[in-house]
Specification:
This protein has helices at 22-31, 48-60, 85-88, 98-105, 123-132, 163-174, 189-200, 232-244, 260-268, and strands at residues 13-17, 39-42, 62-67, 70-75, 82-83, 107-111, 136-140, 143-147, 155-157, 179-183, 204-206, 212-216, 225-227, 248-252, 272-275, 279-283. It is an alpha/beta fold. It has two domains: 13-18 and 230-308, Enolpyruvate transferase domain (UDP-n-acetylglucosamine1-carboxyvinyl-transferase, Chain), CATH 3.65.10.10; 22-227, UDP-n-acetylglucosamine1-carboxyvinyl-transferase, Chain, CATH 3.65.10.
Amino acid sequence: MDILTLEGGRRLKGEITISGSKNSALPILIATLLTDEPCFLRNVPHLDDIETVIALLVFLGKKVMQHKGEIEVTAGTTLKAEAPYELVRKMRASIVVMGPLLARLHKVKASLPGGCAIGGRPINIHLDGFRSLGAVIQLEQGYVDVVAKKLQGAIIHLDFASVGATENLMMAASLIPGKTEIHNAAREPEITDLADFLNAMGARVSGAGTDCVTIEGVKRLHGATHNVIPDRIETGTYMIAAALTEGDVMLRRVNPAHLEALIAKMRQAGIQVEDKSDTIRVVGPKKIQPVSIETVVHPGFPTDLQAHGWR
């Protein structure tokens, strides 16, 4: 087991450049399955989850080249319609390959995350959306088979604002006939970033960032170049660390608009936060004032930042 040792008692001071968003890069990488033309992605973080998705893309028939935060995805062998357990089990987000493969091949077979029975797990929302688009679904031995003789745009109401289901259905709907409306859609910045990439490929996605996303299906998508947005959770983590240590930290290549709820609460707690178009400076006070925080879906306070604590 790896061991991480921290020696506290020091102020954090200096500057740091924020990495690209993992939660944005993952679905965008998967969206390259929607075309055989080359796609170039910049500002991609170097993480195990990224390597897992790359391995899955290669298994499915893509060629992938990496160099210092840049990734090029091109066509390789014939596109496969099955995502195996050995790869999907490593990361639950891999399930969003189903949308692009269903749109391209009209069939997809994927291991359920963890190989488990579905029960009440959120993948139900993905499958209900595929049914609305015209797919037939069968479950057996830890796999889900999705096939469709004909796919057609539809109005889809999500039971809750699932990020993964919104991404899966956006990608599927981009390449099928007709108009699809996703109601109660997730509103996270990562959804908007995926929509921006899809539109750069020639898709017609509107409303991303609101609770109703509309997709007008097109016949084909082409290659595109895209810069992944900065990671708002990494940004928020450094912001809180600076505040807790009475530090003075400048964060560069950020998007303050993605962290308005955190910035508001930090200022309420007496923490100095100076934000500009692509930088945030945090200066921690001698004493942090108590505040009440309740995590909710975006644009509320991020759940992933609740565990960092306040002194």
